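User: Quick sanity check before I run a bigger batch. Here is a single chain. Can you write out its predicted 3D structure?
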Amino acid sequence: FINLVFQTGSYLMTMLLFLSTRQIELNKRGIVYAFLGGMLVAIFSTLSFKALSIGPGVSTVMPALRIGGIALVVILGILLLKEKLTVQTILGLMFAVVGIYLIFTSK
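Assistant: Done. Predicted structure follows.
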């Protein structure tokens, strides 16, 4: 349900932006990024539903998916954007991993 709300909101905001500016930049790079982004959202949604159908439950699967997404963004930021790994980021990821571990072991 959350993914449906997110996708609907994204679509509505895109349409609102288009209707308010009446401009769309059509360049190859932007189209490729939009296509890849759409494909990744579709893959994530499909895998989320699969994990929810075979996994231990919503209260366990969703936090793991969300933390996994955050960890992926941190890793990509470091590798692709050359961002610095700060103490705050390390501590945040450590607390997230500990939280996921506690959720999985409490059942």
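DSSP finds four helices and no strands in the chain.

User: Great, the batch can go ahead then.
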